[in-house]
Amino acid sequence: MVRWPRIGVFGGAAAIVAVVLGLGCKQADEAPAPSEAVVDPGAGAIRVEAAEARLGVLEREVTATGMTTVWRDANLRAEAGGRVLEVKVENGDEVAAGDLLVRIDGSRQRLAVSGASARVEALEYDVELARTDYERKQGLVAKGSLAAAQLDPARHALDRATAALNGARADLGSARRSSKDARMSAPIDGVVTRRLVDAGDTIGPGAPLLDLVDLSKIRVRVGLAGSELGRLDQSAEARVTIEDLGGASTPARFAVLAPAADPVTGLFDVEYHLDNPERRIRGGMVATVELPLRQGSERVLAPRAALTRRAGKLTLFVLAPASDAQQAGVADGLERRVVEQREVQVGVYGDDEVEILSGVEPGEVLATSAQHTLADAVLVELERRPAAGPLASRPRQPGSVEPGGSRSP
């Protein structure tokens, strides 16, 4: 984290700074501590730390917690019953689609194929006889030798024979497929998670054999409030962190946004996909996802440590240049400034910075310590240091209430 340039550390004010910073970093939804002390403007100069307000754009993201799920899974089941001849894999084995996994004795299926085939042949003969009879009677009706009403029974007999033949052919196809299914192969690339049969077991049709999961990629689902969806940057990568795996961060791609909110939580499910080449991430792990939001506009930014309350209003203490007379007698390396107490309006809160919508201009110097001792016209002393780079700051989750009742957008 890049730190603000600090302009002086003195005496007991350091302890107060630690309290203010702690509130800003850990409890973003807590209001700054009240600063209602009675101050004597005629007292000696108060030593403070300070930082400049700057113009910039907060890095915007929201953090959510979700669960990992496997990319694909498959539950291998027997299409036909029989005795298990061989199981070629163990739990944890990696397999490729098409690999032979289980062999089942197909002798019963081969007998079923023979029986179904014989029935089809018999019904084909019946259909041929029924068709010949129907066509003969059609000819007699055409010649006037047979009443038309006597043709109906022949037509019905042909229809029944044809339907029976079609059913027998379907049974034959099923029997043939069952015979082939005696060799059960992997339907997907994956890892065997459960082996449910052993060689020698006798199983029925539909019996579970093996469970497989594809871990080459992982899905992560998190829930977002409706107020956050419009700002979600679907073109940018999210960052997924799994503490159980040491806290390493992995990039993830946006995949799916649920069309409706969950009726129980009121949140919208957002799904991200991430590559898992080492197969370390498994289904059911808790994941922290940093979701990118669209960048906001450039704003005046102030350190959160500078923000406090006076009379229930959010306040910053601006340190204006002092007169030459007020600078008289100041120690080397220090300068004196005069406090201006300003009520401000705030926008998005970051970890270390906050957007100031009104009340302060870029470049103005702000007190970041000892605010409980400050008031209008109070004289302060501070130490200047070389300017540092801007803070890298992240906002709180949009929608959360900040000091003063504002909401992170």
TrEMBL record:
InterPro entries: Beta-barrel_RND_2, MdtA-like_BSH, RND_pump_MFP
CusB-like beta-barrel domain span: 226-291
GO cellular component entries: efflux pump complex
Region Disordered: start-end pairs: 386-409
Boundaries of every Multidrug resistance protein MdtA-like barrel-sandwich hybrid domain copy: 73-208
Pfam families membership: Beta-barrel_RND_2, BSH_RND
GO MF: efflux transmembrane transporter activity
Annotated NCBIfam families: RND_mfp
Family, similarity comment: Belongs to the membrane fusion protein (MFP) (TC 8.A.1) family.
Protein name: Multidrug resistance protein MdtA
Record organism: Enhygromyxa salina
